[in-house]
Amino acid sequence: MQEKKTFYLNGYLGIVLLILLGLFGAFLGFNGVVNENIGLIVAGAFFLIIAYLFFTSLTIVAPNQAKVITFFGKYLGTIRANGLFITVPLTQKAMISLRVRNFNSAKLKVNDVDGNPIEIAAVVVFKVVDTAKASFDVDFYENFIEIQSETAIRHVATKYPYDSFTDQDITLRGNASEVSEELAQELQNRLEVAGVEIIEARLTHLAYSTEIASAMLQRQQAKAILSARQIIVEGAVGMTQLAIAQLEEQSVLKLTDERRLQLVNNLLVSIITDKGTQPVINTGDVE
Predict the structure, then answer these.
(1) 161/140 Cα distance (integer angstroms)
(2) DSSP one-letter string for 162-229
(3) Helix or strand or coil: residue 110?
(4) How much is the pLDDT for 256?
(5) Which of 43, 166, 174, 178 minimizes the number of CB atoms within 10 Å of its CB?
(6) How remote is the C-alpha of 150 from its chain's centroid?
(7) If you compute the radius of gyration of the chain from its CA atoms, what whole number of angstroms results?
(8) Which domains does the chain have, with CATH numbers?
(9) Which helix (H) or strand (E) holds 67?
(10) CA angle 204, 210, 215 (to 5 degrees)
(11) In the prediction, which pLDDT does 283 show?
(12) Alpha carbon 2 to chain centroid distance?
């Protein structure tokens, strides 16, 4: 189905024309009765019926709304303009909202790519752009949006880990913008059949499930400590190498292998330890 424009006439102008048509029909009918002319009576009745039928086709369209017009099961078109209109008589007029709306998903329990159970929810901002598809290609497009949104959220959540301490990995917690963009694109692909445009999709809730939250917090803390220690060790090695190289280049010290090893050990211990070190002053050998 593709949306198309249907026939409609400005309602105020149409009311004036229909009143004139009704008066004309009444005049013909009155003259037919007076003159006992069956033809005039039939013509007057015909014009009165036509005026009445078009009066019943009066419809009001509010701003950011549309009316889908069907005639005995056949789709005639859509009225998108707002105001009072006269359209084809004996038609059904279904209202479709064109306003921007949002859908808040429930908190869904899914497994991330590592198999960890997590809770996730999102808000989807959308609007209808094709009233024909929304009305005829899907059954209750609002329910369709709700089900497809939750399906897309589940699918995206299973593609990434909840968290990671490497910069190369995309995670649900650390890359919310990228995940939201992918979610919006997947939703657009799923909901295009319903004539819906996705304006934005954002995660509103993300957490480990309650049954593993405590254990995953400990794991998260352990990963953070290991990651921090790795950075400290790499920095300490670089600082130690730089210090020894400068001492040797400036001829401040002439170190044997044994003394160099001891100095490296002392420097690494001093830099890496998370507690303050107590210096030991060497005063020389005592006889």
Answers:
(1) 34
(2) S--SSTTS--TTT-HHHHHHHHHHHHHHHHGGGTEEEEEEEEEEEEE-TTTHHHHHHHHHHHHHHHHH
(3) strand
(4) 64
(5) 166
(6) 11
(7) 39
(8) 9-96 (no CATH), 101-210 (3.30.479.30), 220-272 (no CATH)
(9) strand 65-71
(10) 115
(11) 45
(12) 24
Residue among 221, 53, 70 nearest 131 (CA): 70
Q: Give the mean pLDDT of 241-252.
A: 68
CA distance 224 to 230: 10
pLDDT 10s digits, 87-104: 999 999 999 999 999 989
Token pair 């699918």: residue: 155
Q: Which residue has the higher pLDDT, 214 or 181?
A: 181
How many other CB atoms sit within 10 Å of the CB of residue 119?
16
Cα 195 to Cα 198: distance, rounded to the nearest angstrom: 10
What per-residue confidence (pLDDT) applies to 143?
92
pLDDT reported for residue 125: 94
Share the mean pLDDT of the chain.
82
Cβ pair 197, 188 in contact under 8 A: yes
User: Strand, helix or coil at 43?
Assistant: helix
Range scoring the smallest mean pLDDT among 16-20, 109-113, 168-172, 224-228: 224-228
Alpha helices in the chain (DSSP H): 11-35, 38-56, 131-132, 141-157, 176-191, 213-249, 257-272
% pLDDT > 70, the chain: 79
Q: C-alpha distances in angstroms, 96 versus 67, 68, 83, 99, 270?
A: 6, 7, 15, 9, 72
Q: The sheet that has 65-71: what strands, in order across it? A: 74-79, 65-71, 92-97
Q: How many residues does the chain have?
A: 287
Residue 197 has φ and ψ, to the nearest 5°, of: -105, 130
